[in-house]
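May I ask for a single protein's sequence together with how it folds?
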Amino acid sequence: MGSERRPQGPLAGLKVVDLTHVMAGPTCTLMLADMGAEVIKIEKTPKGDDTRYSVPPKIGDEAASFLMMNRNKRGVVIDLKTEGGAAILRRLIAKADVLVENFAPGVLERLGFGYETMHKEFPGLIYCSLSGFGRTGPYKDRRGFDLVAQAMSGIMSFTGERPDGPPVKCGAPLSDITAGILAALGILAAYTNKLKTGQGQWVETSLFEAALVQTYWQSAIALATNVAPKAMGSAHPLNAPYQAFEASDGWIVVGGANQKHWGLMLDAMGLSDLAQDPRFATGADRMAHLKELEAALMKRYREKPSQYWLDELDKRGVPCGPVMNMLQALSDPQTLARDMVVEVEHATLGPVKTIGLPLKFSETPGKVRSGAPLYGQHTREVLREYGFDDQQIKDFEEEGAVVAAPEDKTRQRVA
């Protein structure tokens, strides 16, 4: 293993077999890999992970979406339906701590790699499954996508500009990403138990549940009142003012909801008289008269440019910020200071920019160490590490059990 592959981070030494594709599962294994786990990503034949074809855009010949989700992983291509492919996967699992999968229900069971079989054969294995709706319940056999999870969790019913507007999906695929993070959390909890007992277990979550946990505030309202919350634009369902306001040259967000920040915001705006208005005396009063409050504040905010308001609010300690587009957010000084945009070396593309690790560790820092693999880039390397000789590897290739990238493409460029 080259120096760029040397494990770093708090999970160094954790071995993960990654049978996931698209986004939720790869988010999970991305989190583990960034924290130092050794992740072997197994792709299907003949074309690999579907995100290799989520284009445009491309960087060179590679899909930007695949590059983002699969850095820090080694890539192996295996046909699990072949005898050789099944034998290879079994050997990889035998030495793994964790297996992560997001196949459709029943697929791995039919291939002989379902949880019950694996648990009997490898009782210390942590087996993590991500699915659309979970492995139990009336919807267990349904396929799931982020769009469906956002719709059925209620999120689309309270997202949008107005209560009577059409349903709106959150722009980010929040159920996919949240499910991946929850799966990583579950794996680490199970790993903690394994360190104590030696026993593995089945960890599973779903896009549906991941979307539901994004509704804590709206669920609290619905369960307490038996009334379904409606869309409120950028406003908060429980606190006001806590939303976006239009200045003379653009939009800002202001969190002036608690009494302290409410008073400080009014001072910054030269509207201290509103503090005496009984309609806005308390948070509950402001929520009850939200439209009137928005109108009064918006009129004032539109009188001056956004930077003026941000300066006035910030010096008084009122939470605020500009509404930025993605290019602005990714080039912001705070983003760069926190290493949230970094460059990583790719085998054929050279340096590629990617999102950094959002967790910081004082003693065991994680790192974005290597670019996403080419299709079959590490097939031969991994098989050799796991005890297969060159003749066996050749036989696997002839059988169609594996696909390996040409040798000249598998050498990582040196920066």
